[in-house]
Amino acid sequence: QVQLVESGGGLVQAGGSLRLSCAASRRTFSSYTMGWFRQAPGKEREFVAAVSWRGGTIRYSDSVTGRFTISRENAKNTVYLQMNGLKVEDTAVYYCGASLQGGGSPLAAHYDYWGQGTQVTVSS
User: Is 80 exposed, middle or buried (0-12, 13-18, 19+ CB in 10 A)?
Assistant: First the structure.
């Protein structure tokens, strides 16, 4: 079992930045692909970014490419999502997930564990 705890969400104006963190409870964190997903009200959960267990593969959704950066520190069991140039349409609950499948999968079904989510609200 892996417990994931997200933090760093909040309210920011359009064009601003936030840094999300996701801390994992397990020392085998480095074995997992880590991903960030988001879910806006009335919408399905959508892929944002993922990083493979060694960081060799990184994927982004088209909507965040060039604005968001995913990174991980295996020594701290933590994955980050740096979000710059935030837009109103980035408003959502952001979840981190852990997957035993390699390659930085963008599919939510491939993730075995999820955090509770952190709210990001971008105002115009």
Answer: buried
